[in-house]
Write the structure tokens for this entry.
Amino acid sequence: MKTILVDALDTLILADGTLFDAMRVLLDSYPNPKLVLTNANDGQWKQFNISISPYEVFTLKHEPDKTDPKYFEILLDQHALQPEDVVYFEHSAKAVKSAESLGIKSYFYDHTKKDLAALKEFLDSPL
């Protein structure tokens, strides 16, 4: 069963620090494990209210950022996962490209559109 890697800020957690409830409902409809990814350091963790995440959160506190493939190498290693074991969606095109460079099936989620139907289509295809 693939793990769903979920971008934190501007995806699951909105800019105002609240949870995007409709996304949580969508994610909860899958039995797959979920892991929320962020770059947040301790100050940003509080500033953006990352602790409201209903799922486990992974951060390297900008050392490195998600735009660096090393972030995903460390993530996969620490969670004993392979690129084919996960799917990822993210609002940063650079982070998507970074994950894809390691063979992680990824989706650019345009947080300004909040198109959950398209996200569901992406999630349904590899799961």
Q: What stands out?
A: Helices lie at 21-28, 42-47, 69-78, 93-100, 116-124. The first helix runs from residue 21 to 28. The mean pLDDT is 97.
